[in-house]
Amino acid sequence: MPFKRYVEIGRVALVNYGKDHGKLVVIVDVVDQNRALVDAPDMVRSQMNFKRLTLTDIKIDINKVPKKKTLIDAMEKADVKNKWENSSWGRKLIVQKRRASLDDFGRFKLMLAKIKKAGIVRQELAKLKKETSA
Amino acid sequence: MAAKRKTPVKTRNPDLIRGVGKYSRSKMYHKRGLWAIKAKNGGVFPRHDPKPKAPAAADKPPKFYPAEDVKKPLLNKRKPKPTKLRASITPGTVLILLAGRFMGKRVVFLKQLTSGLLLVTGPFKINGVPLRRVNQSYVIATSTKVDISGVNVEKFDEKYFAKEVQKKKKKSEGEFFEAEKEDKKKLPEGKKEDQKAVDATLIKSIEGVPELKAYLAARFSLKSGMKPHELVF
After folding, report:
1. What is the SS3 assignment for A119?
2. CB contact under 8 A, A108 and B142
3. Contacts 24+ apart (CB under 8 A), B116-122
4. Cα A30 from Cα A8, distance rounded (Å)
């Protein structure tokens, strides 16, 4: 089982700790064994420890330490945002955020919807059981 | 004391420098019109003698002198301010009661009374909570709001909720040994009518929102995995 996602210039990573938690950033240079120089369209370019980053599958085509404008253009060309939001990992994060921001009424409505769905599923299952047993 | 003016008189003698006025004493006498006041009073400045006071009643010597000096308590002029209402609580907000008989019930906020307590109602038909006072500290405010525009809450104040004063009945000897028979306190019909009046418009606006009625009928409880400090209300 070899590694598939490598730290390289242009690798998109997710920040999993600290002030920028949850942001997608691009690795634009490697400082040393532990740290990378990291940049994002809405962030000042800064160094981050690899332990704070989780690599994703997405990679964009840039040179070492590009200008901000070049970086933004490359991200648009590779369509990082849409690729991320359509990936299963990205979609899970979006759902998690939405669930966490539900207010009390929202949680109640969610509970009713779950019960309803389970009821429908159970009805269909019962029908199928009857057919196979009959 | 002479009556105070509403606005203080602007001085007629402007300062040239601090300590030095523009006009001399004689000029100021003329400016203030003291000559006119004297002329009106016949050449003399008007005097107001102290009115002869009615003779005060002779003080009786007190019956009791304390052995040690009695200290006077310090003067307290503090006026308590009405409790500040949290910004998240506005008329029509759904509140979650946290303590008491109706713990966990979701309830509609009507207004804040003069004592600082919050006036809430179930509505009664939906979850059994009547018009009731509740302390702000024992309440979680949710972000769900109900339209409360049709409800008139003017007539509810602290006196409405005051306890009825029981008249003490003198018991004769025989009645002492009878079991204390007190009638169960019945709710006066007027209060039931008030409840119905308030709830009628409220329930209509609640039924306009899907699932809100069931929401208000259900109680709130913490389930497994819910972290109160991370929950958004």
Report:
1. helix
2. no
3. B116/B82, B116/B83, B117/B83, B118/B85, B118/B89, B119/B153, B119/B156, B120/B95, B121/B195, B121/B198, B121/B199, B121/B202, B122/B199, B122/B216
4. 8
Mean of the per-residue pLDDT values of chain B? 86
Contact B103, B138 (CB under 8 A): no
For B124-144, the pLDDT digits (tens) are: 999 999 999 999 999 999 999
pTM over 0.80: no
The four Cα atoms B206, B207, B208, B210 give a dihedral, to 10 degrees, of 100
**What are the chain B neighbours of A112 within 8 Å (beta carbons)?**
211, 214
CB nearest to B232's CB, from A103, A109, A112: A103
Closest Cβ–Cβ partner in B143, B218, B230 for A108 = B218
A109 CB neighbours in chain B (<8 A) are: 211, 215
Task: Count CA atoms closer than 13 A to B24's CA, side-chain side.
Answer: 2
Q: How large is the ipTM?
A: 0.77
